[in-house]
Design goal:
Structural class: alpha/beta
Number of helices: 11
Oligomer: single chain
Largest sheet: 7 strands, parallel
Number of strands: 13
CATH architecture of the domain at 2-156 and 186-215 and 277-293: 3-Layer(aba) Sandwich
Radius of gyration: 20 Å
Strand content: 5-15%
CATH topology of the domain at 2-156 and 186-215 and 277-293: Rossmann fold
Helix content: 40-55%
CATH superfamily of the domain at 2-156 and 186-215 and 277-293: NAD(P)-binding Rossmann-like Domain
């Protein structure tokens, strides 16, 4: 039996689908009442509740711990700490599974990475509270002999946060390069991340962290030009200082909060597209057999198609 936390999330739902495709028996610990996943045994409850966790762990051979609160929207530190750190602690205390796999983040390296490209031995340097909680949680997992998969930002179907805003600006001809546009980006496609998680189950070594990433590195300028090509619009030429873009993102987030809408742009989106961050994934290749397959060209086509499809659906619904 495989237990998955965070099964209703974007990564969690993709992982569950992949496990079911492999004919694995899957159990999900889900906080939302009434949540159902076809072919999955559901345990309703909170990862902070020891009794619920103990019940969910019965007969479990492998744990995939994906549940977490991210910092795309303002969240009180206490809530984030309780879920990301204490929740992990409760799961570890009640688990006797053969494999405990934790999905971490390159946020543990912070904005100013001690090495670029970073590797598994690169010193922790989180700048955000989210990064700090992921660091604390993965230290506990590694200390208990678990396996950590450290992921950069994810792109692909369903991961449209920020992209819809960027694409709308490209369509209008008002998108600008943020900074000089030469920062190097190495994200990971959702299908490649799922493959890494599956490999961690079969080949991950106890007490080891594995850094994963996409097969390509592209500059911000190259990535925006690629998206523009699939949108059939001009590539951005003008530039805007990063500080100005961040200020706009804070304003958009504040504006959305005042109206009760989900913000289309948050500061983290600006950080994601302007960071100069690359990763050495040779350990994951060597020990897990990880080989990322989806490049930026294929992903850009997917992203643009999804954007246009959502835009057309929204237009039809408004009629």
């Amino acid at each position: 039996m495989i237990l998955v936390t965070g099964s209703s999330g974007r990564v969690g739902s993709a992982l569950v689908a992949a496990l079911l495709k492999r004919n694995e028996k899957v159990r999900a610990l889900e906080k939302r009442e009434g949540a159902k996943l076809q072919g999955v045994e559901m345990v309703q409850g909170d990862i902070l509740d020891a009794e619920t966790v103990e019940r969910a762990m019965k007969g479990v051979d492998v744990v995939y711990h994906l549940a977490a609160i991210v910092d795309y929207h303002p969240v009180p530190d206490k809530i984030m700490y309780n879920v990301n750190v204490i929740g992990t602690k409760v799961l570890l205390e009640h688990s006797d599974a053969k494999k405990f796999i934790y999905l971490s983040s390159t946020g543990v390296y912070g904005k100013n990475m001690k090495e670029n490209p970073a590797n598994e031995r690169t010193e922790y340097n989180p700048h955000s509270y989210y990064g700090k909680t992921k660091m604390m949680a993965e230290k506990m997992v590694l200390g208990k002999g678990g396996v950590v998969i450290r992921s950069p930002p994810i792109f692909g179907p369903g991961f449209d946060q920020g992209f819809d805003f960027v694409l709308s600006q490209l369509e209008k001809g008002s998108m600008q390069l943020i900074g000089n546009g030469e920062n190097r980006i190495q994200w990971i496609h959702i299908s490649d991340l799922i493959e890494a998680l599956l490999l961690a189950k079969d080949r991950g070594k106890p007490g080891e962290a594995y850094l994963v990433g996409g097969k390509e590195i592209m500059t911000q300028r190259e990535l925006l030009s690629l998206l523009a090509r699939y949108l059939k619009v001009e590539s951005p030429k003008k530039k805007i200082p990063k500080t100005v873009a961040q200020t706009l993102a804070y304003y958009k987030m504040f504006e959305a909060g005042m109206t009760g809408r989900k913000p289309r742009l948050v500061p983290e989106h600006i950080t994601r597209i302007t960071d100069n961050r690359t990763f050495d994934i040779s350990k994951a290749k060597r020990e897990l057999g990880f080989e990322p397959k989806i490049g930026y060209d294929e992903a850009a086509k997917e992203i643009v198609e999804e954007y246009l499809r959502n835009k057309n659906n929204a237009a039809r619904q408004s009629l």
